[in-house]
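As agreed, record passed on underneath.
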Amino acid sequence: MTKPPIPPAERTDAGFTMFEALVAIALMGLILGALGTVTAQWLPNWARGLIQVQQNEQVAIALNRLAADLSAAEYVAANRSRNVPLFRGAEKTVTFVRPVLGPNSRPGLEIVRIAEMTDSRGSALVRVRAPFVPLPSGDDAIDPVPFADPVVLLRTPFRLSFAYAGPDGAWRSDWRNSGALPAAVRFDVRTAERGLVFSTATRVSADIRAPQPDPANETRSEEAQLQPNNARTVR
């Protein structure tokens, strides 16, 4: 007995219809439009926040550099004719003497000037340095000093101003030819839009007044001058 033939499988059509494809495209367009709208709203705020963080880091680095420099200021006379420290402080510039800074530098002193300058990108706070040498007698001008190694600490929109305080704690914007170093230096950072944004101060670690001679050394020096050159100690 023969078996009946197996009927062929029914044919089915796989895939999407034209209507389903149009609906999928429309939904994708709506999703992309919504994502674009949300991105357009938060992306500028994110960019402004990132720029603000970078600027705050730049200001923090600059203030740390200024605090390290000014706290290391030394009482060093500009020349041998006057016992006045080489320290010139104004609202937008300060010049002082400190130990040489650098990993491969020889021990010694250097003159540091931190001042606001203007270039093609606007105003900038620049640090320059030069090896310390006594100025000519009777001339305290530091314009001929060959400053080099400029380093930009701050740029617009930030503007920095200095203030100086003596032992009395009163702040003033000028410190020149006072016969002593300031006890502290303050740094105020401002912008045209926000006004004062940062303010900090550092103390000068060196003796702010001229070093006084040791009376014991003077007594020993006088005894040495009174003792004859051929004197011998008898035991």
Notes: Confidence is low (pLDDT under 50) at residues 215-222, 228-235.
